[in-house]
Every structure is written in C-alpha cells, then in structure tokens.
Amino acid sequence: MTFLKSLQKVVTALAAAVIVFSVVSFSGSGVATAKADTALPADTDSSLQLDAKAAIAVDANTGQILYAKNADQALPVASMSKLMTAYMVLQAINNGKLKWDQKVTPGKAAQEVSQDTTLSNVPLKEGHSYTVRELYQATLIYSANGAAMALADAVGGTQKNFIDLARKEAKKMGLKDVELYTANGLANGEVKDGKYPGAADDAENKFSAKDMALLSQRLIKDYPEVLKTTKITRMKFNNGTDQTEMENWNWMLPGLAKAYSELPVDGLKTGTSDSAGACFAATVNKDGHRLITIVLGAKHDSQEDLSRFEETQKLMSYCYNNYTYTSLAKGTTFKKTNALPVYHGKDLDVKVSLAAKTDVWLKSGVSKDQLSAKAVGNKKLYKKDGLQAPLKKGQKVGTLQIKAKDQPMYFLDGTDYLSADAQTTTEVKKANIFVIGWRAITSLF
Known about the structure:
- The protein is an alpha+beta fold and 445 residues long.
- It has ten helices and 22 strands.
- The strands form seven sheets. Strands 2-1-12-11-10 form a five-stranded antiparallel beta sheet, with helices on both faces.
- Helix 3 (108-114) packs antiparallel against helix 5 (145-156) and helix 4 (132-141) crosses helix 5 (145-156).
- Mean pLDDT is 90; it is low at 1-34.
C-alpha cells in the first residue's frame, strides 16, 4: 500500500509537470467553439424566377434553407405581423396569463380601428366584450386589425407595452432584421391612439424573409395548435348584434381560389399594403415533410390578384421537384469523421454515430454517400482535453456537423451544416492508475 501511495504521488507530480511544461494543440479535438453566421447568397438558384422582392423556403423541423432570394433584406410585411401577435397570445395562454374563454373589452383605439371598412376587420362594438378565442380566430382567419389590437391590450396592458414585449421576444428568438411598431402590421399612424410613441406615423413593421421564416418555425414548433386555426377556411364572428362572415385570406387552403391538391397548405398568414405589396407566409405538409415558405413583395394589382399564391406554389413545387427528403437512420456513421478524444480512458478516443434518426433535403443528383460529418464534443462532458471516461456505448457525447459534397447548405441558425446528436459506437472503460501513470511519464519524452 505504501508503494502504491508513493507511486500515486510520483504520477500526480509528473502529470502536473506535463500540464505545466508541455503544450498540446486541440484544434481538431472536437470541442465546441462559437459559431459564426454563414451569409446567404442573394439568390441561391437563379433558375427559379420568382416575381417577388424576397423569398425563402425552409424545412419546418431542421431549419434547412432550400431556397433564398434577398432573404436578409428587411421589408414591410403588413398583416404577416399578426403571427407575432398570435405567438404572444399563445405564450400567454400557455403561461396561464390568459384563458381562451376570458372576456376582453376592446380599448378605444382597437374599437375605432375595427370600424374602418377600408381595412380587413370584424366590427367591434363599443363596451362589448369578446373572448380571447374569438379575437384570436378573427386575427388569424380574417386578419382583423382591431381584433389584433384588442389581443395586444390583453397581453401587454397597452399597445406600447405589447410592442415592447414583442421586441424582447423577437430578440430572444434571434430575429435580427426586424422593426416592430404595431400589433397588426398597419403603419404607426393608422392605429389611432395606439401608435407607438416617438415613432413616425409612417413607421411600419419590417421583417426579412429569413426572420419571418424563423418566427413561423418557432410558432409551429412551440404551439403546433396554431395550425388548427390557420387551416379554417370560413367562420362566422359574432360581433354583438350580428355576425360577420370571415373567409380566410389564404386562398391556397382547400376549397378556396388557389387551392392545389398536390400542395396541402394549412397556414399561415397573408399580408398586404401599398408599401409591402402582397406577402404570404405559407406552410405545407406533404408526405409528412413540412415546409415553410415566405414570399415578400409580390405583385398586387387588385384584391383578386393571385400573384403571391402563384409564386408560393412555384416555390413549393421547386423544393419538392429539386430535392429528395432523405432519412438517416440512428447509428449512421460517416466517412472520415474524426473520433473524439477520451480523458483517462482505456482507449484514447471513441468513434461516434447518429444518436437518432435525422432527415436532410438533398439536391437531385446528391446521395447519402456524399455526406460527411465533423464530430464536436459536448464541453460539459469534458475533463481537460477529452470526454471523461468511463463512457457507455450509445451515450450522447456531442454533435455531428453534417455537410454534403457539391451541395452548399444553409440553415436558419446561420450555420452551413446539419447539426445532429452524436453517440458513442463503443464502450470506453476508465484506464487504471498504472496506465494513466505510464502515459504521463512517456509523454515527457
């Protein structure tokens, strides 16, 4: 026992000397580092001639960008802003701050705006109360501007407080190219006494196509129940003394003017104004694969103009015709993937594979065989320069950054790779003290 204790002290001292006097580079060790945003090209595929100022198509689950045109340019989005209002309402419902059957009496500004027949509205009666559910449905189905403002008051107390909350939420979501002034997307001066103080009357909400896609993705992921409302084609709104027939402005829904059986669209929101043109945040779930598309600044010659829906159909069809939705099974390994270092393990490194089934869109002509991956270890599991042994087989130890040869990749989070959980392919037991000591000694020479 005395000999072992003495050996332990020697080994500890030698190991300390190694740390102090030897320099080890771990640039390829797989430790996670800060990621930098990958700039999107102005147009990822010039062969797709979209008649719109900006557009983007993304996978609703992974955020993989399949097409982008001027996607980082902040542009007016008009009533598409109501998606942020819907998110804030659903968040308040989820947090217990609002209830669906809770009665809301619209404030003066919301009530006055609701009476403007030149805008999309359900008329709200002065002094009359409506449920949160009724106002929410009117906002998403009929793009009712006064109803959106009434919801904003219910969430924030005042229009200004609501916008301040929405701005904070946008920042938390990682939205970068956003301006918010109103809950409904009207210009600041159009919301009567509800205008945002200190902002010009012509100030209006702006999003980039990329940020609108990110908002849409968060909305669907966090509150998938939103689709139960956005897919409603028609509904009546009881405004107190009579009813308003509401037909959804999303004419790609089944049974409406621009429905297309090959594209089962079930959301999300249109937006129209002189400055924004015709805009559309759409989502489609085809063969179990959900896409989100954003079209900003399409042609709008009249209320009957179908341009934004035609451009959306073109964009969705482009994605399904030019990409293959490819599944990668749990346990999949990739060529030339680096092993991750192990600290004090019987083995000095460990190979990794996919920890769960993962999906990726591959362009026509690109196959699974052209995928490669870099393994990045989870820092929380590291001790010094490696994963701390022992490690179990199938243990999640980091991520795989997956890329495809001959296919540039872009994602909403700014990366140029598909990130997926990585698991160990084998068990790694902890090395005994003699092995650890011997490694410390030999590293000195």
